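hey so u asked for the seq, here:
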Amino acid sequence: MEDLFIELFSGNIAGWSLVTTGMPLDLMKTKLQLNRDLSVEYFRRELREHGGFFKTFYRGASSMYLFIGFATALEFTVFETFFQILGTFNIPKEMQLMGSGFMAGIGSSMIYTPI
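ran it, structure tokens below
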């Protein structure tokens, strides 16, 4: 049970780190795709209009923090579970890692893009 808590906690931290570092970069990429003539002045205007760095670059992040924390925690848990299951068989560690990663990838694709 303690291992499960550690996996879920680690997954949440990884997901939150992903949102914290990736959201401003993703926003700038999207703005660049929509507006080809981006400049420093454009971002200064955005910062003034929206009221600062966090309101500009992290607008809508609260829902991402909730979702990505859950999804990444589930990925970590699936990976660790399958790694332990495959560890009971007599197969090389590389195959255990590959199989666990494959199953975690399938699980995460079901979360991120449900049918």
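The mean pLDDT is 84. The two ends are 31 Å apart (CA to CA).
lmk if thats what u needed
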